[in-house]
Amino acid sequence: MAKQNCIFCQIIAGELKATILWEDDSAIAIRDLYPQAPTHLLIIPKEHYTDITECKDGLLIGNMLKQAASLASQEDLSNGFRLIINTGPQAGQTVAHLHIHLLGGRNMQWPPG
Ligand code: 5GP
Ligand code: ZN
Fold first, then answer.
1. Nearest CA to ligand 1 atom 18
2. Catalytic site residue 101?
3. Biggest CA-to-CA distance, the chain
4. Cα(59)–Cα(78) distance, rounded to whole angstroms?
5. How confident is the model at residue 4 (pLDDT cuts 50, 70, 90)?
6. Which long-range contacts (CB under 8 A, 24 or more apart) does 86-89 make?
7. Separation of 79 CA from ligand 2 center, angstroms?
8. pLDDT over 70, % of the chain
9. Which listed CATH number (3.40.1190.10, 3.40.50.300, 3.30.428.10, 3.90.1150.10) goes with 7-104?
10. Given this model, what pLDDT does residue 3 score?
11. Which end of the chain is more exposed for a tag (fewer CB within 10 A), N or C?
12. Closest ligand relative to 4 C-alpha
């Protein structure tokens, strides 16, 4: 998807409203608008990458994962949480801008659907 039509780029640019929980120079964390668990956050790089295969910046990905763990502790998810990166149509990716889901606050199934 083109960057111009990307809802996450619009949120990062401040053109679309979102509940922002954290941000630094390279990434942002927001609440998912359609939460699938009591806690459902999205950690999103500020640069537009269509998906994880397009991003070669390991430091950025590492920092986002570390931040996801900090947010989990901030959200009191000491009983567990799940980090998910849907990639491509078969995995159910609906927004073509790389993001990490942080889900927690309920029991989860394995394997995922
Ligand atoms: P994906 O399906 O690509 O892995 O995840 C995209 C996520 O973005 C979904 O969980 C969806 O609920 C969320 N989402 C879609 N539109 C918006 C929006 O406008 N604002 C926010 N905060 N989340 C959104
Ligand atoms: Zn984007």
1. 33
2. no
3. 39
4. 26
5. confident
6. 87/51, 87/52, 87/53, 88/51
7. 32
8. 98
9. 3.30.428.10
10. 78
11. C
12. 2
